Model the fold of this input.
Amino acid sequence: MDRAQGMRRPEDALAIVEAALADIRALEGLLSERRVAAARRRLADVHAEANIARRSRSVRRP
Done:
């Protein structure tokens, strides 16, 4: 999967992960556990996407 198909650069994914962590911390005291769990799942998805991008980039190197 490449950027044209929606893959983010690892640097972009890191910024998203950091923002998501800040959101989770803010939400924990304000929202229901269900919403916090959904935010954690989104964070895990972006983190997994960054790992895939990192691995696929390392495979392409000669």
Q: What stands out?
A: The chain is about 75% helix and 0% strand. The chain has one domain: 3-60.
